[in-house]
Structure formats: C-alpha cells, structure tokens
Amino acid sequence: MRILSGMRPTGRLHIGHLSVLKNWVRLQEENDCFYFISDWHALTTAYDDTSGLKENIRSMLLDWLGAGLDPERSTIFVQSHVKEHAELHLLFSMITPLSWLERVPTYKDQIQQLGKEGKDISTYGFLGYPLLMTADILIYRADGVPVGEDQLPHLEFCREVARRFNYLYKTELFPEPQALLAEVAMLPGVDGRKMSKSYHNDIPMSASPEEVFEKVRMMVTDPARIHKTDPGHPEICLVHRYHEIYNGEEVEETRVSCRGGRIGCVACKKRLAEKINAFLEPVRERRAYWTARPNYLEEILTAGAAKARAAARQTMAMVREAMGV
C-alpha cells in the first residue's frame, strides 16, 4: 500500500506529536511511505513571517528521525522541492467548483479563530488549502492517508476531486484514498489548555531532562488539595492524565495513593518527569546522532525529493495525456 502524509513546519514539535509519528514508523515497516514537510502549506497561515521556515524544516526533520522514521524505508522530502505538486494543484483548480472549497468545515472556523488572533487569512492560498492537500495526495496516487478525525472532511474532499477528474476525462487514473485512523493520545498542555508552542505550555520532543522536569513542575493539579495528606481527585488532575499515558504500569497504584493522601503532588510530578524522560531518551539519542551529521540531513532530503519527483512526474505525464494539455 502506498501511504502519504505530511506536517507543516510552523514550529517545534512537542510530545503530543509522538503518537502520530509512532504510527508513521509502524506504517513504514510494510508499506511504500511518502512523508513530506509541507512548507507551502505553512505559508497559508504564516506568509507574513518566513524568517524561521528553514530552521523549522531542519528541526522537524530531526524530530522525525528522532522518532524513528528511517530514510531507507520511507521517502522523506520537502513539499516545495517537488514542483509537480503545484502543477497538479493548478490543473485541479480548473475543475473544482468554488462552492466545494467554501463548504469545507475548517475554512470559516479558522478564518474567525485566526482573525481573533490578528491574522488575515482571507487569501486565495488559504481558501485553496484543501485542494493543494488533494494534489499532495493524488500526485502519488496514495491508497491510504494517516489522519486524525478533524482531517476527514479534507480527505472526503480529495476523494470528490479524484472522482470528478476521473469522470470528466474518462479515466481511472486516481484512486480514492482511504483514511487510516489511529489511536492518537490527545495531550493537553501543562496548563490544561491545548498544547501549543504559542501558549508556552508544550513539552518539546527535543526537551532536555531538566526542561522536562521544569515543565512538569508547572503542571496544574487538583485545586482542592492543599496538604500532601489531603485525599486527591485524580480524575480531574492533569498530572494523572499524563501518568495514564506515560506510566501505565504504575497508574493504578498512583491513583490509589493519590485518593488516600499517601503521595503528594511534588512526588507525583517527580515520578512523572522521570517516566517522560525515560520515554524520550531513545528519541534524544537518535536526534543527537543525526544532528551530528548535517551533511546526511541534506542527502536525505535530496534523495527523498528525487524519488518523489520520479513518482510525481509519472503521474503528471498521465494527467496531461488525460486532459490533452
């Protein structure tokens, strides 16, 4: 099965991304996987400040390799290095009704949400975001796309475009890619809000052991618990939510001890930080390995782009033949 997925390089990755990357690593074992850093997509909301884009691309690649992506098993590349994405996007724009783009659920929601943050994204590029995503997928004629539930409308849009193209040009060129939904741990930030670099409440994948301890120390806990011996309420405690993910073997003991007032919040946080650091240690080791080999990083992206271009050019030759252009 051919798999396609990507991420926007809009900032450092945090530990909430690890469950997504873990799924990518699993998929690369038995599938033909294409994973790309979608720098053009980043411009749809961050076109006004591109100063950190190159560093974000490098940092994302290191995080991916740290998580276990293998350039020998997966094709890893930067979106803008394969210009055929843009060509297919242009050709798709000729056949896609404007109303299809305007009805995408995230379109109006994000314009309102980001507008409140002072961002103007009433642009052609943002409106066409789902169509560029469609081109990203169909240029490789992908069979499966790992997505979260929030991305399902975009994937259905992709299937609609594939059906329309095949119908208009009497071909079966494009498959209708299927969603590959995986169990993804939704981690809140250390303050209980959505985890985000912009909120300064994230735990970066590249965090040092000391940074992890400091971030965990800042976590909000049961507000009704004043003294260490007070009975706790783990069901409303953010620290306990993290224990459920990173400390499964001790989570029941921790829950009982908290309810019985036998473990204080400071000790509970210390144990959690130790578990997160143990979880991140192999990620740090792989990241350090690749950080020390900058030339190899360039080679990975160059080789990945070459392989991606070969597949994309093959598709575009068939597209042009079907359309007569």
Task: Please give a quick description of this structure.
The protein has 325 residues and is mainly alpha-helical. The protein has helices spanning 18-27, 39-46, 53-67, 84-93, 98-102, 105-116, 124-127, 129-138, 152-168, 209-217, 238-246, 251-259, 265-291, 294-323, and strands spanning 2-7, 32-37, 74-78, 144-146, 178-180. 54% of the residues lie in helices and 7% in strands.
Your description of this structure?
By secondary structure, the chain is mainly α. The protein contains 14 helices and 5 strands. A 3-stranded parallel β-sheet has the order 1-2-3. α3 packs across α13 (265-291). It is elongated and about 75 Å long.
Features:
about 325 residues; about 55% helix; two-stranded parallel ribbon; 3-stranded parallel β-sheet; elongated; mainly alpha
Helicity range: 40-55%
Low-confidence stretches: none
The chain-level structural class is mainly alpha
Task: Indicate the overall shape.
Answer: elongated
Rg over CA atoms = 22 Å
| Largest pleated sheet | 3 strands, parallel
Would you report the number of β strands? 5
Q: Reading side by side through the largest sheet, how are the strands ordered?
A: 1-2-3
